[in-house]
Amino acid sequence: FEPINPDRRAARLARAADLWDLRRIARRRTPRAAFDYVDGAAGRELTARRTREAFESVELLPRILHGTATADLSTSIAGAPSALPFGIAPTGFTRMMHAEGETGGARAAAAAGIPFTLSTMGTRSIEEVAEAAPDGRRWFQLYLWRDRERSLDLLRRAQAAGYDTLLVTVDTPVAGQRLRDTRNGMVIPPRLTLGTVLDASVRPEWWFNFLTTDPLKFASLSASSADLGTLINTMFDPTLSFADLEWIRSVWPGRLFVKGVLTGEDARKSMDAGADGLVVSNHGGRQLDKAPVSLRALAEVRTAAGPDVEIVLDSGVMGGSDVVAALCAGADFVLIGRAYLYGLMAGGQQGVERAIELIAAELRVTMQLMGAATVSDLGPGMMRTPWGAE
Ligand code: FNR
């Protein structure tokens, strides 16, 4: 039994023409509970669905006879360059999706010249990710622990390991209700049951990788198997407030973005508390079901924050034309969560590289078809939306 045949994997990934193909490969190769943890969202998954529908409903306006021989996809965000106008969002428990986990994502991001964000719930340490891709650009995401010393320790380590930007996630005072996880009986660390054994027999590669790369890291998260909601709710502070944000600001010297802003008022308050930028995000629809669609919320946040504040958008981005839509709607930069994880599940680091490559290729051709030579050419007036200008 050979767990990974690189040639076959490369051929499989090369045949994926878009992110939806990668998602199909991912589903075949990953145990159901892990795939559903990624693919699913909160409640009835209304926000997740509406978030995708918003991207599908836009019309991008081509400018005819405005040809460009090439499109320059590079930009700058949080004080440094990025080869592409998108980066990798923070995701927890990533080694459950693929044994390489965060190091696969960080190496792929570094190779592409884009930022990689490590989550507080990451399954590789701050230092491991830095060592895996020393030349890569690193961002760190913070969930505020009940125990402030633990938060401080993470921030100091992130700073020492060269993470230049902090995303403070504010939409998770408690964990959203992920019904697929409940239905799948999903626990961390995974428990051996008849179901998981059967799953193992059809996905030997995933299990082989998982079991040979210390699953104890998961065990250390919790004394006994716990569902994700319980795990998150016992660790993080549900009383998180703007005063806490000010405290985080006072102890983090680098750039600070508040992740999970969806209204103009919260944008203003976040800036007043000392944020350098904002991440307009509904957490991929995984927290408050019926929360606003981030693409639609962008206009209000942009108006409140003003033209000079850097705004990053995430949630629902599955291709280059979605990146274009976000930039036309007023974002400076985009993060991909599931799109990255589908790539990771489909083929580790190589799969993430394929995901980035597919998004970049679609971005390039979309920009050229629209007559946009640079990322800054994309803006208002190049997209029509059914919701008009909000
Ligand atoms: C997330 N997200 C997330 N966000 C965060 O701030 N900390 C975290 O630990 C996680 N964990 C996490 C796990 C998984 C499996 C997913 C899919 C998402 C949210 C993430 O950063 C981002 O906001 C969304 O993924 C964006 O939506 P899309 O791109 O997945 O549609």
From TrEMBL:
Gene3D superfamilies: Aldolase class I. It holds the Pfam family FMN_dh. Keywords: Flavoprotein, FMN, Oxidoreductase. The keyword Mitochondrion does not apply. Its cofactor is FMN. InterPro entries: Aldolase_TIM, Alpha-hydoxy_acid_DH_FMN, FMN-dep_DH, FMN_HAD, FMN_hydac_DH_AS. Its EC number is 1.-.-.-. GO terms for molecular function: oxidoreductase activity. Residues 11-388 form the FMN hydroxy acid dehydrogenase domain. It comes from the Bacteria. Belongs to the FMN-dependent alpha-hydroxy acid dehydrogenase family. This is Alpha-hydroxy acid oxidase. It comes from Arthrobacter halodurans.
